[in-house]
Amino acid sequence: AVHATMAGARVLLVQDSLPWGREANNSVLNANGIPFDIIGSNQLAATNLGNYRDLIVAGDQPSATYLTLAARAAQIDTFVTHGGTLEFHAAGWGFAGGNPTVVTLPGGMHIVNSYSGLNYVLLPGHPIMAGVPNPFTGSLASHAAFNNIPAGADLIVRDDLGLPNLVSYRHGFGRVVASGQALERGFSYGEPAGLILRNL
Fold first, then answer.
1. Less crowded by CB within 10 Å, the N or C end of the chain?
2. Which of 183, 171, 177 is nearest to 3 (CA)?
3. Are 165 and 180 spatial neighbours (Cβ–Cβ below 8 Å)?
4. Confidence at 168, pLDDT banded by 50, 70, 90
5. Contacts of 109 by beta carbon, 8 Å cutoff, 6+ apart
């Protein structure tokens, strides 16, 4: 199966509120000349994800967003299985106060709340980690970690409790990249998590 793409925007950003009140995702995409569309989570059902190569879910969303994403799990799974990439910014519990643990990511991976001010890079040679110090800090460096991680996943970063909190894995013909780091906040305040967002 070949994932179909449009000639225009190939990245779809899903957000109902600005993560940590910042347009960090927009800034990074614009800086790299990547065309993108933005929709609210309630527009997912009417959106043909097959028109996109990458689906980015912004961090720090309201709980209603995560409930909607959970309800659209089959649609998102099909998108990845057919060759799309899901980039899920799983750091909730921010300004919007949302709880992302209701979302099950493709392949059955679960999000857990795990605050950490110190993260350790497990795969320093991975391109997502280019220029990122090891260990790295933040306020907080990460808000979430993952369990029930699919076999064969790349465990790229862990928190100070030893929980993997940045992982990448194949699912069908596509890929899931999930990050528990406060990416958008880190970008806005010059923290190392911002470098990860740029690399992603």
1. N
2. 171
3. yes
4. very high
5. 146, 147, 148, 149, 150, 167, 169, 176, 178
pLDDT confidence band for 8 (50 / 70 / 90): low
Residues across the chain: 200
The token pair at 147 is 């369990």
> And the tokens for 13?
């950003």
Q: What is the pTM of this model?
A: 0.95
Give Cβ neighbours of residue 150 (< 8 Å, ≥ 6 apart): 107, 108, 109, 169, 171
Cα dist from 174 to 81, 107, 123, 146, 171, whole Å: 5, 11, 21, 19, 5
Q: Which residue is it, tokens 């969303």?
A: 61
